[in-house]
Amino acid sequence: MARFILKRLLLIVPVLFGVSVSVFGLLHIAPGGPAAVMLGPLQNEQIIQQVRQQLGLNKPFYVQYWLWASSAVQGDLGTSWTVQQGTPVVTLIKSRLLLTFELALLAQLLAVLIGIPAGIIGAVRQNKPADHLSRIGALSGISIPNFWLGIVLIMVFGVSFNFDWGTGGWISPFEDPIANLQHLLLPVIALGTARAAIIQRMTRSEMLETLNQDYVRTARAMGVGEREVILKDATKNALIPVVTVIGIGIGGLLNGAVLTETVFNLPGLGKLFITAIARRDFEVIRALVLFITCVFVFANLSVDVLYAYLNPKIREDGDS
């Protein structure tokens, strides 16, 4: 297992290198820049060039990348240029990390609590009303964008019913856990709906395949109760592939949080990312893309390790 994990860790290095070079290159050739944003209406070409020189933006691409990468591997992601001028980027990320992670984890929890039972019921009740209802719900969940659903939730509950929970602002769970959950209720619903639909479809598909296996037929022929067959035998094996969807979903939810936090005016990493793009703060953009990439990569690593633990054959294939 240690060798398997080590090989997966070594594969992370080229992924992070490729992403960092790509993002750095795209920002390098992007029109506009932080100098124009910092100067505002007082800008002229001479002053812009002076500011670019102060920020090091007039240096060759490979020099800029080397200076940034050599600092990044030591934990220094630079300082904000325009979002919060002079503030270390690491400080900005730390101050908003709790909200985004809480939002993503609660949305994933909601998705699991809805998606897995709905998928199991759909498979057990195949082509019956319960199955049709779950499939319609899954199709709707996948088709509706989370930002549009968030706007609808705000209009329905915030405007029509004057329901102020989750329609703006955030309170730390360490200050008031109840108020914290109240403010995240609608954002979690908006963000978790699509994930619940994906988990439901995967669970249903795997359950249908598992229920047709020979060992399930044998268990039924031996007189084992239907409830025990479904919950103990079929579900246990069917949920192994679903682990992949759930694990990778954490990274996907961080992407979804970008629009969800903007819609609900939540001061998380998503809102910071949008602000950094609008203000051309390249240091913050680079750091956030690298951070989200790390979350994706380590989520995939966790899934691979869990797979290898549940199925030793995968571990043996990976070592060969």
Helix-strand layout with pairing:
Blueprint: H1 2-29, H2 34-39, H3 45-55, H4 61-72, H5 89-124, H6 129-143, H7 146-160, H8 177-211, H9 214-221, H10 226-263, H11 269-278, H12 282-310, H13 312-319
Helix pairs in contact: 1-12, 5-6, 5-8, 5-10, 6-8, 7-8, 7-10, 8-10, 10-11, 10-12, 11-12, 12-13
Walk me through what this model shows.
With 320 residues, this protein is mostly helical. Helix content is 78%, strand content 0%. The protein has 13 helices and no strands. Helix 7 crosses helix 10 (226-263). It is globular.
Oligomeric category: single chain
What coarse outline follows from CA principal-axis ratios? Answer: globular
Measured on Cα atoms, how large is the radius of gyration?
24 Å
How many helices?
Answer: 13
Overall mean confidence score, pLDDT: 83
N- to C-terminal distance: 12 Å
Main structural class: mainly alpha
- The low-confidence runs, each spanning 5 or more residues with pLDDT under 50, are none
Tally the beta strands: 0
Order of helices and strands: HHHHHHHHHHHHH
Q: What composes the largest sheet?
A: none
Estimate the strand proportion.
Answer: under 5%
> Could you estimate the helical fraction of the residues in percent?
over 70%
